[in-house]
Amino acid sequence: MNTRRLAVLLAVVVMQSAALAGAAPRQTEAPPWLMRLSTWIELVAAHRPGAFDTPARLVAFWPEAHMDEVRTDFVALAALYRRELVRSARPAPVPYRDTMITVPELGRLLGLAEAEGAQERANLVLKRAAILYADVVMLVVPLLPGQFGCSAGASMLVKDGTRIGTGCVNVHWPQGRALLDAVKPDPAKDETVRLWYAATLAFLLQTGNYANARPQLEHAQLLFRLDPDILFQGGYYHEAFASPLVQTVAVAAGSEPGGGKVHLENAEDLYRRAVREDPRFVEARVRHGRVLAMLGRRQDAARELRLAAAAAEGPQLRYYAELFLGQAEESVDNLAAARDHYLRAAALYPQAQSPLLALALLARQSGDRSGVREATATLLALPPGRREDADPWWVYSRWQNERYQARIAELHAALQEGDAR
Amino acid sequence: MRRLALAAIAWALSAIVPAAQSQLPTFSSRVEAVRVDVLVTDGGKPVGGLRAADFEVFDNGVRQTVDFVSAEQLPLNVVFTFDLSGSIVGERLANLREASHAVLDGLKADDQAALVTFNSAVLVGPGLTRDVRLVKAAIDRAEPMGNTSLVDASFAGLMLAEADVGRGLVIVFSDGVDTASWLGSKAVLDVAKRSDAVVYAVSAGLNRRAEFLGDLTEQTGGRLFTIESTRDLSGVFLEVLDEFRQRYLLSYSPAGVSPGGWHPLTVRVKGRNATVRARPGYLAGGPM
User: Fold this and answer.
1) A247 interfacial to chain B (CB closer than 8 Å)
2) Is A169 inside a domain boundary?
3) Would B103 be classed as within a structural domain?
4) Residue A17: per-residue pLDDT
5) Which of the 8 DSSP states describes residue A150?
6) Is B175 a member of any domain?
7) Count of A-B CB contacts under 8 Å
8) What is the pLDDT of residue A389?
9) Which residue of B has its CA nearest to A367?
10) Distances from the Cα of B5 to the Cαs of A114, B11, B33, B53, in angstroms?
């Protein structure tokens, strides 16, 4: 092995890191892998979670192979460092790739100088890096031209039930997952890892980015099998996939041989388990009730939605509960109850058209001419140019009750706590 | 609904409804009669000059006596129900505006028109009015955006079309499938089965699935046009208006049939090998 001493190289790398923001690279003796690793560690440490900052902008241009390489090197060297510390009080230099490395040098490189808590520090780097990658996808990649940050895989870009092009399958999501898989001793027991999945899934699903959400979800389900948040996101994914917005294109593309019913059944299963794990999870209950109704399980739907309507807080969640309960009561011929629930939904959002349409239809079916007249007149009087949030039904497929904002805030707080230690 | 408006009373009532209120539903007095709007063609060309005695109507297989035939006596309530989701832009939007203007220019003084536009939102405005300039201005102002609430808008169109006396003609134009409605298609098709209005629909675009529009037009005795390009949309719209004007409005008082449920209808022209297009039946027992 053509070995070199790390001490010499580190000095060069530190100088290189100082020139992060765009200075031309200098000619050095440092091997490229070491340059990259050191730069990456600097970028990860410098990134402010949630910020569109220089580290995020720089990492956005890193090729996937380099991200693979630095992750592999970091994880291997961190393991080497821990092993050598455990093995000997005065560990000798160890070879890694083409370099001989002493353990103190290694500790400085990795930012793990303190023997105590080295594992926790290594985990923190991994988690910070995963957050950096998520911020790159969410904040930087959308602004880049062409296919920067996209893998060779393609996804369908769909608008209003029509395929309008090819979307991006981002490389940073699988990189983030791979980083978190390296958290020791067990990523499935780590709250920050759980929050990363909960927050990023909420982001992906409320922006309708199903191609990237699916592998993220599958991975999260392996790690957090009984977590209500993750179960909920699974239900949400399948409920969205059963909608006409997605099914229209999926069926046309021949990619959904099972059709929407299979997705509805999956959604029902996942929402039910989310509610079982957390009976106070009203949003999951509301969606569970709707899915039950769509599956034709009307009595079960009405029962679930009655519970949800009684517990729902916040106007939007209450609106959904009342609207869906109205529909569920209507389907079991409780027309007076249905009318009451539609009226309550209309009172919550006076400019929402859905409860008015439902009332007009109900009145027409029940022979209530004045009811038809009243509902139709109110409908006709709705002002033009209503905002998209005038009727929450219009945003149902993209609404997550501020889950993303809540989870991302918790995630950043958890990270700050880790930084402070 | 298949019940005939008592035309004279309703006509008199409608005459005293102020223009500003005319967009609100004004359910007219009705008698227990069934109304069937039919188109008769021979060799693809509409057949005119037929009288009540020329028709045979079977309600649930039982022959009925046609006691009223009207072609152009009643004014039209033309309700444009237009998809203005994000895909209706550029030439497609210009063609839609031009085509609707052409229909409006072809209306008679007593005819009324209304506009329902839809993306996620269903917007009504203006309601039924004889002032076609209002409708033209609204069509020209409308801006496309968002998703497609086709089913919700079709329901609103039906409601408007039967909100005043006259023959309801709903012209639906869409280039997509429903992605955002609250109402279910089955419930709205049930309403269509009870409605006197006739729906004509134009589905634009390649390889579009227009199942709902196909069912809606069939259930109301109308017709679905599937077009690839909107370049001749004016021609299609004018064909709809022309065809609708050449339809006959038959009515009869049902005899020998049960009062409720689904009533299959068969309409024939005696002594001619003519093609008759009419709704396949009606739902009775509903109050309206």
Assistant:
1) no
2) no
3) yes
4) 45
5) E
6) yes
7) 106
8) 76
9) B287
10) 91, 9, 8, 21
B131 within domain boundaries = yes
Residues of chain B scoring pLDDT < 50: 1-31, 287-288
Element (H, E) at A134: helix A118-135
Q: Is the ipTM of this complex over 0.85?
A: no
Q: How far apart are CA A372 and CA A362, in angstroms?
A: 8
Q: What DSSP letter does each residue of B134-184 carry, written as one string? A: HHHHHHHH----S---HHHHHHHHHHHHTSSSSEEEEEEEESS--SS-SS-
Whether A191 and A120 share a structural domain: no
pLDDT in tens, A268-295: 999 999 999 999 999 999 999 999 999 9
Establish if A224 belongs to a structural domain: yes
> Rounded distance, CA B272 to CA B258, Å?
30
Which residue(s) pair with A167 in the sheet?
Answer: A155
Residue B26 or A394, more confident: A394
Query: What's the rounded Cα separation, in Å, for the pair A36 and A17?
Result: 10
Other Cβ atoms closer than 10 A to A293: 22
Contact A372 B120 (CB under 8 A): no
pLDDT at residue B68 in the model: 72
Total length of chain B = 288
The least confident of A307-316, A384-393, B84-93 is: A384-393
Residue A365 lies in a domain: yes
**Does B178 contact A243 at a Cβ distance shorter than 8 Å?**
no
**Contact predicate A322/A289, CB 8 Å:** no
Taking the CA of residue A375 and the nearest CA in chain B, the distance in Å comes to 10
Any CB–CB contact under 8 A between A401 and chain B? no
Instruction: Compare CB distances from A379 to B124, B180, B190 and report the shortest one's residue.
Output: B124
**Count of all residues that appear for chain A in the document:** 421
Interchain contact, A367 vs B286, CB within 8 Å:
yes
Residue A244 and residue B191: Cβ atoms within 8 Å?
A: no
Q: What is the token pair recorded at A109?
A: 């490189």
CATH number of the domain to which B130 belongs: 3.40.50.410
Both tokens of A297, joined, read 């399980």
Strand (E) or helix (H) holding B266: strand B261-269
Could you tell me the residue range of the domain that residue B193 belongs to? 76-245
The residue among A125, A122, A99, A127 whose CA lies nearest residue A13 is: A99
- A24 and A120 housed in the same domain: yes
Q: At what angle do helices A228-241 and A282-294 cross, to 10 degrees?
A: 30
Domains contained in chain B, number: 1
Domain range holding A137?
A: 6-142
- Domain contains A52: yes
Q: In terms of domains, do A115 and A193 share one? A: no
A264: nearest Cα among A218, A232, A295: A295
**CA proximity to B111, closest of B81, B79, B139:** B79
Are A98 and A210 in a shared domain?
Answer: no
Mention every residue, 6+ apart, whose C-beta is less than 8 A from residue B73: B7
For residue A239, what pLDDT is reported? 95
Number of domains within chain A:
2
Residues A201, A126 within the same domain: no
Question: Could you say which DSSP state residue B19 is in?
Answer: G
- Residues A245, A365, single domain; the answer is yes
